[in-house]
Amino acid sequence: MTLEEYLSSASYMNDHIKILLDEKAKLYQIATAINCDMSKERVQASASGDKLPNIIAKIIDLERQIDREIDAYIDRKRAIRELIKSVLPVSEIQWRVLVYRYMMGLCWDDVADKCNYSVSQIKRIHKAAIEEIRRQNPKKVSEIEKMNRNELE
């Protein structure tokens, strides 16, 4: 995997976190919509007929799984943010280009507009920023380049 692919995964993670949060909200909506009519008292010989506790348990398990995935994405985004931040002492414009491109997921034209540069200038600044990350973080970049793409998903 290239360093650029790794940095680009931050934008993917933003989208995936939003999807997971939406899924969690829907699960919560389902859980709170489940009601039970307690006006009729029933005696049941078998516990297998009562599905409500099973449904609630499954919802809780899914919510926990979603929370774990969100935590993992946030940790990964934090690592990406730290890599990007490593160029800040050298060049604020390089940092801004990387943040706009990878953390915010903007296209080259939008990055150029935000920074008041041409697209070709932005791409040169980007290239220099990537080289600066490589220079300052050789061990981390080496680890990233050994990763498979599916390790980000």
Care to describe what's here?
With 153 residues, the chain is mainly alpha-helical. It is built from six helices and no strands. The radius of gyration is 23 Å and the shape is elongated. The two termini are 13 Å apart.
Keywords:
153 residues, mainly alpha, 73% helix, elongated
Short description:
By secondary structure, this protein is an all-alpha fold. It contains 6 helices and no strands.
The tally of helices reads: 6
Overall structural class, as computed from helix and strand content, comes to mainly alpha
Helix content: over 70%
Computed CA radius of gyration, to the nearest angstrom: 23 Å
Uncertain segments? none
Shape type: elongated
Spatial separation of the terminal alpha carbons: 13 Å
Structurally, how many domains make up the residues? 1
Secondary structure layout plus pairing:
Blueprint lengths: L2 H31 L18 H34 L6 H12 L4 H8 L3 H18 L1 H9 L7
